[in-house]
Amino acid sequence: MSFTIAIDGPAAAGKGTISRAVAAHFGFAHLDTGLLYRAVGARHLAGAEPVAAATQLTAADLEADDLRTPEVAQAASRVAAIGAVRAALVDFQRAFARRAGGAVLDGRDIGTVICPEAEAKLFVTASPEVRAERRYRELREKGIETDFATVLADTRERDARDMGRTDAPLRPADDAVEIDTSHLSIDEAVAAAIAAVDQAMKERTT
């Protein structure tokens, strides 16, 4: 049996943490689709043409140490706006989504474009200020020197690009359950996500 859970949302909203927890709870496989775009972005920063980087992506590219830097995050957002790059990665994501035993995919267009027929769809969000604060703390903990104003500006710039692109803009699917994590603890956010998936499973069997 296949069961697909699509979890979308902007950067630093908590969708990665929630997705991993949901996958572990239900025993499903998990794919952070943002890593695909980060890997393409990293290869582009190293000199590769974006579409060529997407078509030649390997598993090793997803394990590079520099995929979480601000520079790669911005490059990922830029290459994700290229339709041919997105098209090159669609088949991989869809095949993963329908694997036997269930799958959780998190990204920005999973419920709207990649898996519009997903059995459960969530949209995880939070205010730009809250997300920037989370990202700022994460970068400082990694020893990356920056300041909150810069991170907030980067967050808003990336939101504008992700939401404004012509191809697969960031937005909740019409039937997605929205979870705002601005004032939720990790445990509360995970519990809300699991409850939403449980409800989707019940509806599928009735």
From TrEMBL:
GO CC, any one term: cytoplasm
Origin: domain of life: Bacteria
GO terms of biological process kind: pyrimidine nucleotide metabolic process
Molecular function as annotated in GO: ATP binding; CMP kinase activity; dCMP kinase activity
Start and end residues of each Cytidylate kinase domain: 5-45, 60-198
Catalysed reactions listed for this entry: dCMP + ATP = dCDP + ADP; CMP + ATP = CDP + ADP
Keywords carried by this UniProt record: ATP-binding, Cytoplasm, Kinase, Nucleotide-binding, Transferase
Binding residues for ATP: G9, P10, A11, A12, A13, G14, K15, G16, T17
EC number: 2.7.4.25
Manganese is among the record's keywords: no
Pfam families the record matches: Cytidylate_kin (PF02224)
Subcellular location per the Swiss-Prot or TrEMBL entry: Cytoplasm
CDD domains per UniProt: CMPK
The UniProt record lists the keyword Kinase: yes
NCBIfam families linked: cmk
Family, as annotated: Belongs to the cytidylate kinase family. Type 1 subfamily.
Annotated protein name in UniProt: Cytidylate kinase
Provenance organism: Lutimaribacter pacificus
